[in-house]
Specification:
By secondary structure, the chain is mainly α. The protein is built from 6 helices and no strands.
Length: about 180
């Protein structure tokens, strides 16, 4: 079916992000389980809870439009998931995987932020004020999640290549990041 109206585009984009949010529930669980840094693990777990709220808001947007909430495969999110799977073939250390997850999470957040900004723009043009409010709440949470991941990544301590760690317990005791 050819998309010919802005209403159809809005519906398409809603289905796309609806799929993405569902797909990210599993990815956030996976990243939390792979991450050795407690603060990063908590951030992934917290954002998973927020993502459940994002889905509920999208359900409300669909309902307000008189439509059934449906997902449509999101190639953008699938590409990011595929990128992670390819990275895992490199057999990263736990520490590198934890840091990678912070960076990968930022990519996902930027994707979602752009998607929600676009949805808000379209909803405004269509006069869907209720949808704008719901989508804006989610956008605000996505931006906060991105900022949290950026902060965690900037504080993360990864051992420089080629240097051996004599006593791995010492950095953890001193509050170092990247350790269990």
């Amino acid at each position: 079916m050819a998309l010919t109206t802005i209403d159809e585009l809005f519906e398409h984009e809603l289905k796309d992000i609806y799929y993405a949010e569902h797909r990210l529930l599993d990815a956030l669980d996976e990243m939390a389980g792979e991450t050795i840094d407690r603060d990063a693990r908590k951030a992934f777990q917290q954002h998973r809870k927020e993502t459940q709220g994002h889905i509920k808001r999208l359900d409300r947007v669909f309902k307000a439009l008189g439509q059934k909430a449906e997902a449509e495969t999101c190639p953008g999110i699938e590409g990011l998931v595929k990128e992670k799977k390819a990275f895992m073939k490199e057999k990263p250390s736990e520490e590198i995987l934890s840091f990678y997850n912070l960076l990968a999470g930022q990519k996902v957040e930027r994707y979602e932020i752009t998607a929600y900004e676009s949805l808000i723009d379209i909803a405004q043009q269509l006069g869907h004020d209720d949808a704008v409010d719901l989508l804006q709440q989610t956008l605000d949470e996505e931006e906060a999640a991105l900022n949290k991941l950026k902060q965690l990544a900037s504080e993360y301590e990864v051992e420089p290549l080629g240097e051996e760690v004599e006593d791995q317990e010492e950095p953890a005791a001193a509050g170092g990041r990247g350790r269990r």
